[in-house]
Design a protein that fits this description.
Rossmann fold, alpha/beta, 6 helices, single chain, seven-stranded parallel β-sheet
Amino acid sequence: MGQLDGKVAIVTGGGSGIGKGIARLFAQEGCCVAVAGRTVSRLEAVVDEMRESGAEVLAVATDVANEEQIKALFEQTVSRFGRLDILVNSAGAFDGGPVEDVSLEAWNNVVCANLTGPFLCTREAFRIMKPAGGGRIINIGSISAQRSRMHSAPYTATKFGVDGLTHATALEGRAYGIAVSSLHPGNTMVERRADVDEPMFDVEVIAKTALFMATLPPEANMFQSIVLPLEQLYIGRG
């Protein structure tokens, strides 16, 4: 038996990186998973792989900054699986550089992916989870929400925002059995960071942490989790 047998999850950003790792592990543990992402080819490859192992999976091409596409994602999930127990907000974008050189287009792209998306998804999840009597929302943040690095104003600002969104919605959700939390990864080996020469760990580390958070008893919530490679700079970073 899997740890998530009978559960249904939506994982955004599920076509690659952390979202892909979480979606795969949840499915391995018996969860029915709606995998959302913008790049259809990546999404289809992930879903085909998961189905080969017998997982119940739904692929939904989704831009998390698009309100109508978010509504369609949640409607298709409930129509297919009948319920929603877990939302993982993992979709995101990175851009940066010296603040005086950051374009408004770059700023808006990061804000839409990293902050507007989680808001829209959380809003839809609340509309389903409230009358159902509860659920879990896990927001994938970053250690940049506590310790910034140089030339990362758009990314850092949005990850602080995700932390604020977590605080506000956890407060709203607790009376309805909805546990909202933030998972803050350190350096994780994802596709865009393959050439970074810093201490890294595999996506599986974050996926296992998300699974632990998702399988806590309903009266418990791991409100924040910071997971980073042992040798990564964090205290004193800047």
